[in-house]
Amino acid sequence: MQLSYRIRMILYNILLFAFAFLIVVFCVFQGTSYFFINQTKDVLLKATQDSTLFISQELKNLHSSESLDNQFIANSLYLSKNISENESHRVLLFDTEGNQIADSVEETSIYNILATELTLSMTENAPVFTLKSINDTSTAYFTSPVVIDNTVIGYIGFTYSMYEMDAFLHVASIFFAIGGLIGLLFLVIVTLSFSRHFFQPIKDLTKISKEINNGNYNLTIYYKHVDEIGDLTHAFNGMVTNINSVILQLESERKRLAGVLASIDDGLLAIDKNGNIITSNSYIKTYFNVSNPKTIYDFQHQSFLRDIFDSLKNGKDHISEEIDCNDRNLLLIGSPIREKGFEENYMIIIRNMTAARHIQEEQRKFISSVSHELRTPLTTIIGYTDMLTRRQVVDQEIITRSLNTINREGHRLLRLVDNLLNVNKFDRAEFDFKKTNLNIVLLLSEVVEQMQIKASQSDIEINYVSDELPEILGDYDRLQQVFINIIHNAIKYSNSGEIIDVISAIEDNHIVVSIRDYGPGISEIEQKRIFNAFYRVEEDRSRNSDEGGSGLGLYIVKQIVEKHDGKIDIVSQVGEGTNIIVTLPILSVLIYGGESDEKRNK
Ligand code: ATP
Ligand code: MG
């Protein structure tokens, strides 16, 4: 049975008390007995002296010629009776040989109850005292030589009942028993209440330790006394505070780390040697559709992750591989995490390369398209200049046509370079707008007039209709570029003999310009992409293979329109043509628009 510390302490106290109590009882009883025995010895020695004197006188008074020891034997009964009366003890007399010659109580008894003491007295020639218990009563047995005129004439013996001592010890034992019981009771009560007081802080410590075990660290023990328990509680409180602050620190570190992990743009998996996931971030769910994975084996459909884990476990230091997973291009980078004093763990980083690969693809297309774009006009220009110089052409018509072609191709090159420069500026957010009040009808008329020359070459007619429109605030050159690019596309993608409708009107405080062609149209999927830089639907779709394009026209259009707080929409169906709609706000107009007049007069 396991006893509690408190019960053990109470039992120890009881044991200690009982031990001390028994020592006290023993000493008291021994002391009392010693006192009574000494007193009895004195009394019996005195009785011996008195008796010897009495015997001597009685025998001398007889005036007998017999020896003293014979007279002692002859008168022994008388003497014993008288001595017994005087001393009120039982008196036994013995001759010099040790034979009992008289007993004041039992005259006929032949059994010598003092035989042992008498033998000793005879040997040592001295008084002998012993204490015996007869019928539960302590009795002193005493023998002594009777010496008269320096001669031992016989022996005298007494039996002396020590009932006083017995009575005293009896009463004392009753008192001791009652006192002991009261003492014990008192001891138990005091120990109990003291131990409650003593154990309370220990109980508190235990309770708080359990609470701490359950994760509650905001606890302190209150103990008002300055003593060892006070020191213990103080140290304990300090320890709890320290643990609490360490835990808070760890928690904030953990949160910070979780924040870092969450803000990383890559998926991250940290795995221990047994394949348990130590940490992962939200991209793991995004990429692999596995929530809260506990082990690497939770990725049932992603065997490539398990393969990387196995390779790392087998000692590979760096793994990098690209895979296609759920329409994504993922780069997986695996490496071991080695830290001194810690088991080796592993980390797999999953990087989404889809956009990067897309950009790479776009750039590849761009480079091939730009090279093609640069190459076409340059080949034409070089061809014509070669022809003019080498063949020494004199026909004025051929010379004029050739120069016109060289000029047109030069402009095409210039437009391409301009577009490239603009895109570069847009990307670096450096584009500088010079906004003035401008008349959009005038601007569009100029553009249509300019583009009609080009359209006529393919027998295409541009119709421009407009309401009367208020002035708007905008960059004249840039907005011209917007409509040139759109109409240029419309011409490029129209069949010869078709028409292009340009309409400008006012709607809900906005100027709406629509450029409608009847060309091949653009599918819904392509409509979402054609405003991206370098995007072209098909490399070879344009009607006129001479035209080509770099896929920058509509990107530039969108950037300029948005920088005017406007928007661009597209309504198109494959086979039915395309309608590009530009909406510009007419809210912000300069009050003193001197510059706009300038433009109008251009
Ligand atoms: P660039 O304008 O830089 O010389 P581009 O005309 O090819 O080259 P964008 O003007 O940006 O480039 O047009 C992007 C793509 O949208 C074109 O390649 C074309 O496929 C499609 N597109 C644009 N306008 C029309 C249209 N009116 N009809 C049919 N497709 C069009
Ligand atoms: Mg274009």
TrEMBL record:
The chain crosses the membrane at residues 12-37, 167-194. CDD domains: HAMP, HATPase, HisKA. It is a multi-pass membrane protein. One of its GO terms (cellular component) is plasma membrane. It is an enzyme of class 2 (transferase). Its EC number is 2.7.13.3. It comes from the Bacteria. Residues 369-588 form the Histidine kinase domain. Its main location: membrane. It is found in: Cell membrane. GO terms for molecular function: ATP binding; phosphorelay sensor kinase activity. PANTHER family: SENSOR HISTIDINE KINASE CPXA. This is histidine kinase. It comes from Acetobacterium woodii (strain ATCC 29683 / DSM 1030 / JCM 2381 / KCTC 1655 / WB1).
